[in-house]
Amino acid sequence: MVVYAGRGDARRSMSLLWRSAAPREEGAAAGPGPRPGLTVDAIVTAAIAVADEDGMAALSMRAVGERLGRTAMALYTYVPGKSELLDLMYDAVHAELPAGRAGSGDWRTDLTDWARDTLAFYLRHPWVLQVSQARPVLGPHEYAGLDALVRLLYGTGLDAGVLRRLVGTLFHFVRGAARTVADAREAASATGRADEEWWYARSAALLELVPDFADRYPELSRMERESARPEPAGDEAVPYPEREARETFDAGLDVLLDGVETAVRRARQAGRTDTP
């Protein structure tokens, strides 16, 4: 399920994102005693809770209203509709990414920390991964997160043209890894079959139907054989699909940063870097 941000009225969405207009408070409701007023922030917080707990498919103005003890119609006084609400939710959770991160002086350590923090962020809010990157929200917290990453990348001394592409590369890499981990976590509940059951059934069928698998795919079989390791012991062991995805993330990040390091070295040799 891919969701596109920025589908609501551009002027109203941007005004809410950047708080150009003060949030309007709801007056006292009819009945015994006043009821607390709503705010845009309260609505956004409730909407994030719905998406975190039940997924993007459960998000609706009605569901958010019920969480706040109000009708869906009461929310439209503050937020024009679900499209604008999605923009606000997306930007609001990005405030969790450290915007004022102080660099350690070692750009590789800084980027490793950034990648791991961002992976953890996506896994706290997996619905964010369903929001397409083709049309960014253009909100203040999203920009702050990007600014913090660019600050760390400038520590490499590479020129702005290269850094611009590295920003996209790093986000694609981390989002892809997070998507795999999130899918692994949801697979059992979504399909009704545990990971162990699924793998056992498919592996057994593959061995039976393709007895010459190792001969047909020799290099793949060699890699699997040479990289095999004992399963971790204990009840606390991370399930195989998630463990595989996390180990792939760690290994891939090392290789990616090795590539950046090579680019930095070449730029230094060519005198095209600000790094001493």
Q: How does this structure look, described?
A:
62% of the residues lie in helices and 0% in strands. Helix 2 (40-54) crosses helix 3, helix 6 (107-124) packs antiparallel against helix 7 (140-154) and helix 6 packs antiparallel against helix 12. It has helices at 10-17, 40-54, 61-68, 72-75, 82-93, 107-124, 140-154, 160-191, 195-209, 213-216, 218-227, 240-269. It has a domain at 10-94: Homeodomain-like (Arc Repressor Mutant, subunit A, Orthogonal Bundle). It is flat and about 65 Å long. It is mostly helical. The two termini are 47 Å apart. The chain is built from 12 helices and no strands.
Short description:
The chain is an all-alpha fold and about 280 residues long. The chain has a domain at about 10-95: Arc Repressor Mutant, subunit A (Orthogonal Bundle).
As a percent range, the share of strand residues is under 5%
The SS-based structural class is mainly alpha
- Helical residues, percent: 55-70%
State the end-to-end CA separation: 47 Å
How many DSSP H or I helices?
A: 12
Q: Mean pLDDT, as a whole number?
A: 89
CATH C-level class of the domain at 10-94 is Mainly Alpha
Number of strands: 0
Overall form:
flat
Could you please say which CATH topology of the domain at 10-94 applies here?
Answer: Arc Repressor Mutant, subunit A
SSE arrangement, N to C: HHHHHHHHHHHH
Rg over CA atoms: 24 Å
Unreliable parts: 21-34
Largest sheet geometry: none
Instruction: Look at the structure and name the CATH superfamily of the domain at 10-94.
Output: Homeodomain-like
Give the second-level CATH assignment, the architecture of the domain at 10-94.
Orthogonal Bundle
